[in-house]
Amino acid sequence: MKVQNVSKVMLVAVVAAALTGCGNMSTRDKSTIGGAAIGGVAGAVLTGGSGWGTVGGAAVGGVIGNQVGK
Fold first, then answer.
1. Of 39, 34, 23, whose CA–CA distance to 66 is shortest?
2. Which residues of 38-59 are buried (b: 16+ CB within 10 A; e: fewer)?
3. Could you give the angle at which helices 51-68 and 27-46 cross, rounded to 10 degrees?
4. pTM of the predicted model as reported, rounded to 2 decimal places
5. Number of neighbours of residue 61 by Cβ within 10 angstroms
6. Which of 4, 7, 28, 36 counts the most CB atoms within 10 A of its CB?
7. CA triple 42-24-12, angle to 5 deg
């Protein structure tokens, strides 16, 4: 089996496991996670891939998502 095929199978397994774990989350929890994900991506883009920018963006996005999900 090629490495690319193994990588694809592992990616699908990880995504499936992550989605299963979100089944009993509240709307506020989902908003917090979504905000953190969007903030992390935005922080990485705005700082050129800086680790600190990504973490800072995720933190700010998580707080905003938490407040929006009230």
1. 34
2. bbbebbbeeeeeeeebbebbbe
3. 150
4. 0.67
5. 22
6. 36
7. 60
CB contact at 8 A, 66 and 32:
yes
In this predicted structure, the answer to whether residue 59 has a pLDDT above a threshold of 90 is yes
Q: At residue 1, does pLDDT exceed 80?
A: no
Q: Per residue in 27-58, pLDDT tens?
A: 888 888 889 988 998 998 999 888 899 899 99
Hey, what are 58's tokens? 């995720």
Provide the 8-state DSSP code for 22.
T
**Which DSSP category does 1 fall into?**
-
> In the block, which residue shows the tokens 């920018």?
53
Query: What's the CA gap between 18 and 26, in Å, rounded?
Result: 15
Q: CB of 58 within 8 A of CB of 46?
A: no
